[in-house]
Every structure is written in structure tokens, then in C-alpha cells.
Specification:
The chain is mainly beta. The chain is built from no helices and 22 strands. The model has no long low-confidence stretch (mean pLDDT about 95).
Length: about 150
């Protein structure tokens, strides 16, 4: 499923496998957004990946995103005595640097910048920036090793 195509730019030689859900969010309740989703050249997005963009998600060239990954630049804010889907959403941009590999089942949360040539290990939850040339694993993701 691709929703909001006018706000999505997809580069050359991009593979998007079955079950992907790629969507931009233009409005939520009374909020209005101007989202921008950019997918660079030579990107592979494997099965059952969910990308939800309400502000800005940039996936640079030569990135591989494994299966069952979630990338969301937005989240519901908690407001007491309101149903969760009646709450406003907050946004913060995401960037995934060139030549990076995102392992199976990874969750990338709003406001994160993953540097160039990184490996994010399977099942990691990325809630903070990861510098270039790093290997990060765990919940929350921590830098396990700086690549040489």
C-alpha cells in the first residue's frame, strides 16, 4: 500500500516488496501536516515494512531495510481522559544515511538520525541518533561497536 503519492519521492532502482505499507499523513483530527518522504536510489525495502510520515523521512541511497521494520516520524501524544486516537500527534524528522542496513524487526522512532554506513541489529528500537559507521543493537538501541 502506498498512500499520499504526491508527497513521496522515490529514486531509481528501488525495490519495495510485498506487504509494505508506505503512507504520508496530511492531516489528523484538526492537525494539518506537509509531509515529505524521500527514498533514494538503490534502496531495498523488504516485506511487511511500515513507513508512516507526517513531517519528513529521508532514506538516502543504497540503504537496505529488512522485513517487519517500522519507521515512524510521528507518535500520539498522551492526553488524559481522551481516547488514544483522539489525541494529537507529535512529529520529528527521521534520516537514514547512505549504505546503512536496517535489520529485521527494527523500530525507528521519531526524531532519529542514523548515520552513513551503519548496521542496526535485528529487533532494535532506535530512539536516539546513531553516528556514522556504527553498529547498534538492543532495546533501546545502543552503539555496540564503531566500525573501522
Amino acid at each position: 500500500m502506498i498512500h499520499g503519492k504526491k508527497n513521496i519521492k522515490i529514486g531509481n532502482n528501488v525495490t519495495i516488496r510485498q506487504g509494505a505499507r508506505i503512507e504520508v499523513i496530511n492531516s489528523w483530527n484538526n492537525q494539518v501536516f506537509v509531509p515529505k518522504l524521500e527514498i533514494g536510489d538503490n534502496v531495498t525495502i523488504e516485506e511487511n515494512v511500515h513507513i508512516a510520515c507526517a513531517q519528513n523521512i529521508k532514506i538516502e541511497n543504497d540503504v537496505t531495510i529488512s522485513f517487519d521494520v517500522m519507521i515512524m516520524d510521528n507518535e500520539h501524544r498522551f492526553v488524559e481522559n481522551k481516547k488514544i486516537f483522539d489525541n494529537p500527534i507529535e512529529t520529528s524528522p527521521i534520516e537514514i544515511g547512505a549504505y546503512s542496513f536496517i535489520g529485521a524487526g527494527v523500530k525507528i522512532l521519531k526524531g532519529v538520525k542514523i548515520g552513513r554506513n551503519c548496521i542496526i541489529g535485528a529487533g532494535a528500537v532506535v530512539n536516539d541518533n546513531i553516528p556514522d559507521e556504527s553498529i547498534a543493537v538492543g532495546i533501546p538501541a545502543i552503539i555496540k561497536k564503531k566500525r573501522l
